[in-house]
């Protein structure tokens, strides 16, 4: 009996891997709410910094110059976090358990050249942003000083809707936390490659993020990564 359910689970997982959850139900429905859509510039596929150099240089940095970061840099960071790298199957830069992609990324822009201050949802399909709340919303991520001074913050929200249905809520939560780590490390390494600095932050203000981003009960704020220029 145990063997049979393990086999069924393995078959389900394999099927989901082939099909992927694709852009999904909850994700697409939420994306449709956005009024203002901003197309991001195409990400670069080459860098002068090697992966080894990026790993060796990455350090948590909490103070930044007043210089803005650019929309091209924002594009590159979001692509590193969740960009689609295999469009036919919707697969992305970071791994995802059974290709379920439960992470919803939001950009909190305060000092990005070419982008009005606001909170934006990143839509991997089409590599674009959708405005969720206009004006500087960075203080709604939390009250750590670097959250106010970093030109931009990338916030991680997990949506457990799809994975919890198939695998239960404990597994859905565990997988989403693991995936957040994969994706956030991509962002931190990409920052080094771009000559930017930042820090990943687990101490966030869940209540403020929930109300700013109008999250559902199935969505949970998990993490944030800052991005700025060296001081
Ligand atoms: C899960 C997690 C949560 C973290 N939360 C915060 C945070 O809220 N604020 C902060 O300034 N740094 C935070 N950090 C960064 C750590 O303080 C930092 O990684 C650690 O001091 C090691 O330094 P390094 O990143 O430069 O190697 C967090 C790191 C992790 C992995």
Description:
The protein has a single domain, classed as 3-Layer(aba) Sandwich (NADH Oxidase), CATH 3.40.109.10. The protein is 39% helix and 22% strand. It has 8 helices and 11 strands. The chain has helices at 2-19, 25-31, 51-57, 71-82, 145-149, 161-167, 169-194, 206-213, and strands at residues 37-39, 69-70, 84-86, 91-92, 103-109, 112-113, 118-123, 128-134, 152-159, 200-201, 219-227. A hairpin with a 4-residue loop joins strand 7 and strand 8 (128-134). Residues 59-60, 62, 144, 199-203 line the site of flavin mononucleotide.
Summarize the structure.
By secondary structure, the chain is of the alpha+beta class. 39% of the residues lie in helices and 22% in strands.
């Amino acid at each position: 009996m145990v063997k049979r359910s393990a086999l069924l689970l393995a078959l389900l997982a394999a099927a989901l891997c082939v099909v992927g959850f694709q852009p999904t139900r909850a994700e697409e429905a939420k994306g449709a709410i956005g009024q203002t859509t901003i197309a991001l510039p195409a990400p670069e596929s080459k860098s002068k910094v090697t992966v080894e150099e990026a790993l060796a240089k990455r350090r948590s940095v909490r103070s930044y110059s007043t210089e803005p970061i650019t929309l091209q840099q924002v594009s590159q960071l979001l692509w590193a976090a969740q960009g689609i790298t295999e469009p036919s199957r919707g697969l992305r830069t970071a791994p995802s358990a059974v290709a379920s992609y439960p992470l919803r990324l939001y950009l909190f822009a305060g000092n990005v050249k070419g982008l009005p201050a606001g909170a934006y949802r990143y839509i991997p399909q089409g590599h674009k942003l959708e405005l969720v709340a206009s004006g500087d919303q960075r203080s709604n991520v939390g009250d750590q000083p670097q959250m106010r001074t970093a030109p931009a913050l990338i916030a991680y929200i997990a949506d457990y809707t799809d994975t919890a249905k198939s695998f239960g809520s404990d597994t859905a939560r565990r997988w989403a936390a693991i995936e957040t780590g994969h994706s956030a490390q991509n962002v931190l390494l990409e920052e080094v490659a771009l000559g930017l600095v930042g820090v990943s932050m687990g101490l966030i203000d869940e209540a403020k993020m929930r109300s700013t981003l109008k999250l559902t009960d199935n969505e949970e704020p998990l993490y944030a990564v800052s991005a700025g220029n060296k001081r």
